[in-house]
Amino acid sequence: MKKWTSVLLLVAMALCTVVGCGGQNQQDTEPLVVAMELAYPPFETKDDAGNPIGVSVDLAKAFGESIGREVVIENIAWDGLIPALQTGKVDMIISSMTITADREEVVDFSDPYANAMLALLTNKDSGITKAEEINTAGKVIAVRTGSAGHLHAQHNLTNAEI
Fold first, then answer.
1. Which of 18, 45, 71, 119 is 20 to 30 Å from the Cα of 58, by its Cα?
2. Cβ burial, residue 37 (10 Å; 0-12/13-18/19+)
3. Residues 135-158: what's their mean pLDDT?
4. Which of 38, 27, 145 is CA-nearest to residue 88?
5. What is the dihedral of CA 147, 153, 156, 158, to 10 degrees?
6. How far is Cα of residue 105 from the mean position of the Cα atoms in its chain?
7. Is 12 a residue whose pLDDT tops 50?
């Protein structure tokens, strides 16, 4: 009797495994909604017809293909990306977002898919050759709020006007 009980239990477990793995759950059939701000060529931008294009768009589509889900790109303003993820409006963000300690407190990051170095753009006649030369009273620095450049300027170029 113990032998038959063990066999029936084993068959029941096998059936549960097959049934559980064989069907698609609802999430697998729904589109994967990916947020990005389409304002950072060549990573994420729009073509002449307004369609999303770029490295991040291609990465999102390749990821969707690898997991068997259609990808829908949501163009969301930069400061709305993380809130959209936190509220469940989107499934993930693939955008030109630098990993920071503050952001890591509220979202999980994958391994980076690109590494970018910060650079200064100055008028060629300005005579400025180093970032330290901008860190003086009277110099004005333009940065994208919330970007890695903004964070760097706040911490390292405190004498200039940001």
1. 119
2. buried
3. 88
4. 27
5. -140
6. 15
7. no
Encoding tokens for residue 102?
């503050």
3-class SS of residue 55: helix
Q: Which long-range contacts (CB under 8 A, 24 or more apart) does 37-45 make?
A: 37/75, 37/76, 37/77, 37/78, 37/81, 37/95, 38/73, 38/75, 39/78, 40/95, 40/96, 43/95, 43/96, 43/114, 44/94, 44/95, 44/96
Euclidean distance between CA atoms 97 and 100, whole angstroms: 9
Task: Tell me what the pLDDT averaged over the chain comes to.
Answer: 84
Token pair listed for 107:
């979202």
Bridge partner list, 46? 52
**What values do phi and psi take at 140, rounded to 5?**
-115, 130
Return the residue matching tokens 């909604």.
33
d(CA 133, CA 157): 9
